[in-house]
């Protein structure tokens, strides 16, 4: 960044320790001197004696950099006074003023155009720049800067929910370049962050495609085998389709069994947990998370066991619910532990994992929480090649999914770096570390 973007010719001490030096012709101003600030009191309720309006609410601001007419606004009502006070005009800045955590507060968005009959909703601050002092796009980018946003984090009050007051927003310090220069900074950041965002979108699309490829690879290998020329037969199960002719399709109870070894007497203390489809270690002495009074209620699991979390099937259709145990330890008895019999554990894991990612288990549970037990899985069809073929399939999938996982990890790291660069570029521009006037 230092090679591409040059600093300003001269700087001066800002007089604010955490801001450091700023361009010589810039000023440090409280936000209230650059814009008019109001906290909205327009809620989602509808009253008969009020006018119907479109309401720009918290999530509209939280998930969008710019507020446009393409957003599907909530229909509500407001008084005439509220409509006048909180109408959205081009260049207005909206700011989230509440959050469950202090570091997720003060998320800004800029109104891209005048919006007819759209007003600012509850839990938001409405910021309208004074035209001779500031432009909305510059204020929006300034508040997006981590360096400046930290003021709001420090000012946040609360225990289980955090909020910032009007005075804290009003007294936040921003840098004030000339208005024409603010416009140049805003244009520069729109162009440069736009390039970065497009690249991030492409990389996120790549990750999605890689995940789809991984899913298809696993599903094909465990239901069709590795030999494309093998004769096929009808499995008799609609969602499985054809399977290799020499494979067996057996009910689960004939090839796997439920295992539940009590940890009474604290025989084991290596605490394990199912997280995103992986069995991971946890610190048994940690105070973080929901832990029982005694781990004697947990079950002992061994290497090669398969863990399945089959609760709340109706609420959560994104979690990965199957994991392969790779070391002896203990895990909550709320999970189903399977001991494979005629199956190589790695192959059994991939087969059940394929059922999981293709959502076979959903709608199979019972009760209010849609929970499944082993008795509900007893007749689940399990495809059984011979042991040698199971081993080859497991080794093939270890190798090929490992390549895909490695590429996904590298792409995610690249996205993280792009986001870090994006954040740094915004901060550098709005704090005067780089001169974009000739951009």
Can you offer a commentary on this structure?
The structure is a single chain. By secondary structure, the protein is an alpha+beta fold. 33% of the residues lie in helices and 23% in strands. The protein has helices spanning 58-62, 80-86, 136-144, 146-155, 166-170, 179-224, 345-357, 374-377, 387-430; strands at 11-13, 21-23, 27-30, 35-39, 51-56, 66-67, 74-78, 93-96, 98-99, 108-111, 118-120, 124-129, 157-158, 162-163, 173-176, 232-234, 242-244, 248-251, 256-258, 261-262, 272-275, 278-281, 299-301, 306-308, 322-324, 329-331, 336-340, 381-384. The two termini are 14 Å apart. 32% of the residues are buried.
The helix/strand class is alpha+beta
Low-confidence stretches: none
What's the story with the biggest beta sheet? 5 strands, mixed
Distance between the termini: 14 Å
What is the helix fraction of residues, given as a range? 25-40%
**Shape annotation:** elongated
Mean pLDDT over the full residue set? 92
Count of beta strands: 28
Tally of helical segments = 9
In what order do the strands lie side by side in the largest sheet? 4-12-8-10-6
Q: Any key phrases for this structure?
A:
439 residues; alpha+beta; five-stranded mixed sheet; four-stranded antiparallel sheet; 9 helices; 33% helix; elongated
Write the layout of secondary structure elements.
Elements: E1 11-13, E2 21-23, E3 27-30, E4 35-39, E5 51-56, H1 58-62, E6 66-67, E7 74-78, H2 80-86, E8 93-96, E9 98-99, E10 108-111, E11 118-120, E12 124-129, H3 136-144, H4 146-155, E13 157-158, E14 162-163, H5 166-170, E15 173-176, H6 179-224, E16 232-234, E17 242-244, E18 248-251, E19 256-258, E20 261-262, E21 272-275, E22 278-281, E23 299-301, E24 306-308, E25 322-324, E26 329-331, E27 336-340, H7 345-357, H8 374-377, E28 381-384, H9 387-430
């Amino acid at each position: 960044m230092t090679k591409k973007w040059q600093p300003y010719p001269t700087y001066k001490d800002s007089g604010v320790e955490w801001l450091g030096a700023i361009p010589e012709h810039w000023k440090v101003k409280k936000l209230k001197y650059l814009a008019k600030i109001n906290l909205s009191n327009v809620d989602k309720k509808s009253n008969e004696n009020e006018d119907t309006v479109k309401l720009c609410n918290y999530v509209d601001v939280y998930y969008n950099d710019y507020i446009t007419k393409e957003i599907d606004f909530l229909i509500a009502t407001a008084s005439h006074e509220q409509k006048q006070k909180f109408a959205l005009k081009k260049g207005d800045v909206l700011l989230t003023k509440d959050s469950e955590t202090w570091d997720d507060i003060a998320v800004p968005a800029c109104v891209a155009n005048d919006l007819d009959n759209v007003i600012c909703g509850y839990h938001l601050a409405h910021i309208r720049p004074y035209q001779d002092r500031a432009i909305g796009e510059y204020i929006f980018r300034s508040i997006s800067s981590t360096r400046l946003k930290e003021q709001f984090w420090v000012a946040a009050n609360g225990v289980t929910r955090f909020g910032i007051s009007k005075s804290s927003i009003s007294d936040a310090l921003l840098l004030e370049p000339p208005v024409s220069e603010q416009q140049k900074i805003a244009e520069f950041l729109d162009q440069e962050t736009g390039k970065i965002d497009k690249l991030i979108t492409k990389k996120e699309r790549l990750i999605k495609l890689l995940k789809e490829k991984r899913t298809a690879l696993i599903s094909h290998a465990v239901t069709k085998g590795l030999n494309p020329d093998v004769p096929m037969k009808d499995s008799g199960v609609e969602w499985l389709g054809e399977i290799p002719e020499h494979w067996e399709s057996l009910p689960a109870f004939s090839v796997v069994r439920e295992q539940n070894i009590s940890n009474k007497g604290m025989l084991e203390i290596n605490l394990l947990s199912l997280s995103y489809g992986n069995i991971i270690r946890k610190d048994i002495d940690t105070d973080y998370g929901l832990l029982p009074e005694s781990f004697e209620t947990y079950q002992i699991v061994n290497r090669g066991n398969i863990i399945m979390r089959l609760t709340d099937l109706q609420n959560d259709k994104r979690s990965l619910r199957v994991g392969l145990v790779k070391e002896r330890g203990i895990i909550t008895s709320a999970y189903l532990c399977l001991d494979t019999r005629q199956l190589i554990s790695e192959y059994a894991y991939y087969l059940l994992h394929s059922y999981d990612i293709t959502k076979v288990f959903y709608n199979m549970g019972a009760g209010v929480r849609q929970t499944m037990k082993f008795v509900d899985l007893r007749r689940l069809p399990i495809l059984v090649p011979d042991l040698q073929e199971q081993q080859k399939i497991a080794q093939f999938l270890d190798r090929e999914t490992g390549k895909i996982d490695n590429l996904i990890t590298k792409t995610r790291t690249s996205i993280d770096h792009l986001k870090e660069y994006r954040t740094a570029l915004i901060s550098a521009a709005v704090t005067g570390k780089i001169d974009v006037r000739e951009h």
